[in-house]
Design brief:
Rossmann fold; seven-stranded mixed β-sheet; three-stranded antiparallel β-sheet; binds S-adenosylmethionine; Chemotaxis Receptor Methyltransferase Cher, domain 1; 280 residues; alpha/beta
Length: 280
Amino acid sequence: MLIKPVLPPTDQEIEEICRIINETLGFNYTSQKKYLIESRLNKRLLQLEIDNYQSYLDLLKQDRNERHNLFELLTTNVTSFFREPVQFEYLADTLLPRFATEKKGPKKLRCWSAGSSSGEEAYSIAITCRETLGNNWDVKVLATDISVEQLKIGSVGSFPREKLASVPPQWRAKYFRPDQANPDHFQVIPELRNDVLFRVANLLDNDSLPSRIRLDIIFCRNVFIYLSKEARTQILDYFYHRLHTEGYLFLGHSESIDTTSDHRWLSLGKSIYQKREVFS
Ligand SMILES: C[S@@+](CC[C@H](N)C(=O)[O-])C[C@H]1O[C@@H](n2cnc3c(N)ncnc32)[C@H](O)[C@@H]1O
């Protein structure tokens, strides 16, 4: 069968795709993303044997699964183990020892990797907690993302050898085993996999988010860069209410909170913030 080439999208069609993404995920995509959108979607249209963007938009309106495919294609899932190592050093050297000496009640720590992608961040948090607190703490890391594909990779916990390059060798040996089912892949050991729970959640949809647990630490790194100011404000409010008093929030190194206007957060440097109790 002869497959027809895809007609380039009009500006209006690009704007419509941006609108769907922005309204659902809180992004601030504009028609300036035309090249990115076209380069990522053309292949999908060919797969579907659709030769124009208007027909694809019609499909998006009717088909929820296709909207999920769209989100998978237009989000960026780049991540790595121990990304931005200074933050993990701060967690290990300063924050976790503080929890160990000051936390009242049971030795329990609840962390959330929000926008976890395939789980490298969540496993890095879990390893750091085990190494710093020892095994007699009850530590759980919730890993959430909108990408079902990335969460699947995370919950299986099998990563190609090159991904492990940023894991210190002694921890590579301790927490990973060759994956018998997948040549040149290494799988996270079951004990560490048990520390991490993977769930689909849209940070903009409160109903999909963890509504009951109170968290000690939230990592939400390299997500805000894609989001509109309104979306970031909504999500920060949510984080504030989910964190325990004096809990901690880690953002990506190029992301920040304006603490001169938002007094609920104390900046600790390195894009790490502590929740402050504010009385109005
Ligand atoms: C660049 S990755 C960051 C992964 C990890 N936090 C890190 O810093 O290495 C951004 C992730 O955020 C997810 N994401 C973007 N918007 C989201 C939303 N509204 N709700 C949930 N996840 C979202 C994407 O699917 C992607 O996996």
